[in-house]
Amino acid sequence: MKQKLIQSSWIIVFTLLITVFSCEEEVGPQPLENNTTPPGMVENVIIENLPGKARLEYTLPDDDDLLYISARYTLENGTDMEVKASYYQNSLLLEGFRGLSQVDVNIYAVNRSETKSAPVTVTVEPLEAPIFDVYRSIETSPDFGGMRLEADNPTEEDIALLVMQKNLQGDWEPLPSSIYTSVSEIGQSLRGFDTIPQDFALVVRDRWLNVTDTLFTQVKPLYETLMPRENMAPITLPNDAELIASHTEVRDLFNGGTLEWYDSYFTSRTIDVGNHLVTWDIGTQTKLSRLHIWQFSEPIGGQRLYYYLGAMRKFRIWGANELNDGNLEDGTWTMLGEFEVIKPSGLPYAQEDNNDLVAAQDGADYEISIDKPAVRYLRIECMLNWAGGQYMAVSEVEVYGNPDF
What we know:
By secondary structure, this protein is mainly β. It has helices at residues 2-27, 130-137, 354-360; strands spanning 43-50, 53-59, 66-74, 80-86, 91-95, 103-111, 120-124, 139-143, 146-152, 159-166, 172-174, 179-181, 185-191, 198-206, 215-219, 225-226, 233-235, 265-266, 277-295, 298-300, 303-305, 312-320, 334-340, 364-367, 375-385, 393-402. It is 10% helix and 42% strand. The N and C termini lie far apart (102 Å). This is Galactose-binding protein.
């Protein structure tokens, strides 16, 4: 009998505990106060219509319990929006509009008890969204192995420039090489296409899923090939950099090895003033499209660091059809491009994450503008490495282009 009483007591206590905790879980976040009197309404609302946006300025109600102002509206695509501003501000920026249409906005003053005022309704008529200016500026042209796409995005909006081709079912679908960017001047080459006429469709989309009309274009990609490494030969000009040791040589730039130190090219760390240049012959005069470069990765603590020591951070590529004494300023050499390697993670020096590894381990393309002349001789000039010097450590370089252009 005593045992049954003890069991019953435990059941009662357990039930009470469950009830208490259940009540606590159901409560959730509560208002700061319990004031059910609505605050006054905002007044003197001034509307400034902007591209895809509208700015509201207003006079706040004189209410000591005021917490924030809320504006609620529905975009043209049916998305419900709410924007809030604290009682320290007297303006709101409403975003996401397609533009060129009237949209009603309800503005509420809200107190610390989450009690809302009566709404003040205003009508905004934002200007056309920035994606349409981007769309109208799009220009396409043939490029090596694909299409060159250029457009202007002067307000640096976050946009997606979707490039589509038809799938086997005949439906347009976005390519993985579609462009997602916020830069002011868009210039990108899409490669990997056969040299037959290619049909593309392009639309511009913003982060609120507003989209432009579709631009249709046909482009015939230019022929591109990998220049044979067996036709390449090292060259040493008077101002080329001294090598780090006897085991490294210019030929290691194009011997097919992309990882180990004995397959890589290093200039001396002890000489860090002046040019750090390397020169070689690609075998024949060629209209270049790109260089694919693998930076040397230092094995540190069981991992490979790609943004470390002599790996190039800023560098230039030069080309010529004649050789001189190495002078870059007498007109013999043409600068084919100046480049900066971006570390995706932004972590401090000697710290890298998986995003950095993925971006670097397979090398990267450095494109040569199609308006640059065909050349036979190449030079790489390291301007700055990741250690802050100028010496370079490069594992491999592949050269792409069209020798018959």
